[in-house]
Automatic annotation (TrEMBL):
Superkingdom to which the source organism belongs: Eukaryota
Segments of skewed composition (Low complexity): 22-42
Organism, as annotated: Anopheles atroparvus
Domain Copper type II ascorbate-dependent monooxygenase C-terminal: 231-380
Protein name: peptidylglycine monooxygenase
Segment forming the signal sequence: none
Keyword Secreted: yes
Copper type II ascorbate-dependent monooxygenase N-terminal domain: residues covered: 84-209
Length: 396
């Protein structure tokens, strides 16, 4: 059984679309200015009856030249393109399905992603992630990239084993679009470790697809520019493993040390849990000469509100030897243990911190996870944390 219904004639071409594209039919590359004054239609290719949208220039292709994104720009009025990165008309066939689809970035140029415009609703997609990868996790156009994959279908991780992997954007619960601060962008292509972008969509419920005639094209319109930006964006994901006991309130916590000789400037955060989350909070911790920890709030949210990226509470720079910490306060009325896992019957505890570095590369550290409860808490002796804001971290 395949995770997406694709006609046999289209399947072979779709499985290679991230390596080479066919010649365009009609239309021009979408392009607009940074201040939104101009816009043009996007280019679409029809392959075997399935819609496949290809960006000329962003993709490494041999297509003829067409009018596209102008190079460079001045000040805050540099030109910005809009690339529709959507699922190619998939038909999810079982609940809790994770599907991935890739696009290869043109390796001859550097591109800077400056905004994300969701094309999805929470009635269809539980959440979506954009991964930046050195290699995709599969050679197929669409593959099962969750923990529910069976042995008879194409499956794999979002990014290839051993290849660079990082999350560059996350969406859930009808969050609106995100535009990065002026002059900030995620660098992809050319000498960046990000040579592929992979879209992952989690379909928690599939009732609307059961008749076999309804398809899905959830995804994200990526806003990008070719103007060289001095402020490179990055995302650090803090999360936990562990489990929540029945009929219990549990704190799922993590802490990590910044050991790289970099200065990062936080500007946005996002929280994510499933249904048991009540409050998710994130902090920067800086120890003074007396050994006292000073906790600076980065962000705190009810994770059941729209899971967008919100402005951080403090934009003070984060430096080497600072620490980052996150807590998810979970409340369970269930009569069973709830483990960290991929389905809506499981839980997740995630705090995303989006930041930029100036005239530097983002952190090599992309993920910071702890074992979670019952093995790990902020109060563990080995953390050497003090002045923990226990009440504030769990209350809005």
């Amino acid at each position: 059984m395949q995770p997406a219904r694709v006609s046999p004639s289209a399947r072979s071409r779709l499985s290679r679309f991230h390596m080479a594209a066919s010649s365009p039919s009609t239309g021009n590359l979408g392009s607009s200015s940074r201040n939104g004054r101009n816009s043009k239609s996007t280019q679409q290719l029809s392959m075997g009856g399935w819609l496949l949208v290809v960006l000329v220039g962003l993709l490494a292709t041999t297509v003829p030249a067409v009018s596209g994104l102008p190079e460079g720009g001045a000040g805050g009025n540099y030109p910005v393109g809009r690339f529709p990165f959507l699922m190619p008309k998939v038909v999810p066939y079982k609940p809790e399905l994770y599907l991935c689809t890739p696009v290869k970035v043109d390796y001859t140029k550097s591109y800077y992603i400056v905004g994300f415009e969701p094309n999805a609703t929470m009635a269809t997609a539980h959440h979506m992630l954009l991964y930046g990868c050195g290699e995709p996790g599969s050679e197929s156009a669409v593959w099962n990239c969750g923990e529910m994959a069976g042995g008879s279908e194409e499956s794999g991780s979002p990014c290839g084993s051993g290849a660079p992997s990082q999350i560059i954007y996350a969406w859930a619960r009808d969050a609106p679009k995100l535009e990065l601060p002026e002059g900030v962008g995620f660098k992809v292509g050319k000498d960046s470790p990000i040579q592929y972008i992979v879209l992952q969509v989690h379909y928690a419920h599939i009732d609307k697809f059961k008749d076999g005639t309804t398809y899905d094209d959830s995804g994200i319109f990526i806003h990008y520019t070719t103007k060289v930006l001095s402020k490179q964006a990055g995302v650090l994901l803090l999360g936990t493993g562990g489990y929540i006991a029945p009929q219990a309130t549990e704190h799922m916590e993590t802490v990590c040390d910044i050991r790289e000789e970099k200065v990062i400037y936080p500007f946005a955060y996002r929280t994510h849990t499933h249904s048991l989350g009540r409050v998710v909070s994130g902090y920067r911790i800086r120890k003074d000469e007396a050994g006292d920890d000073h906790w600076t709030l980065l962000g705190k949210r009810d994770p059941l509100t729209p899971q967008m990226f919100y402005p951080v509470e403090s934009r003070d720079p984060i430096r080497r030897n600072d620490r980052l910490a996150a807590r998810c306060t979970m409340q369970s009325n269930r009569t069973r243990i709830t483990k960290i896992g991929a389905t809506n019957e499981d839980e997740m505890c995630n705090f995303y911190l989006m930041y930029y570095v100036e005239n530097d590369e983002p952190l090599q550290m992309k993920y910071c996870f702890s074992n979670g409860p019952p093995l790990f808490h902020w109060t563990n002796r080995e953390t050497e944390l003090n002045h923990i804001p226990d009440y504030d971290a769990s209350h809005l």
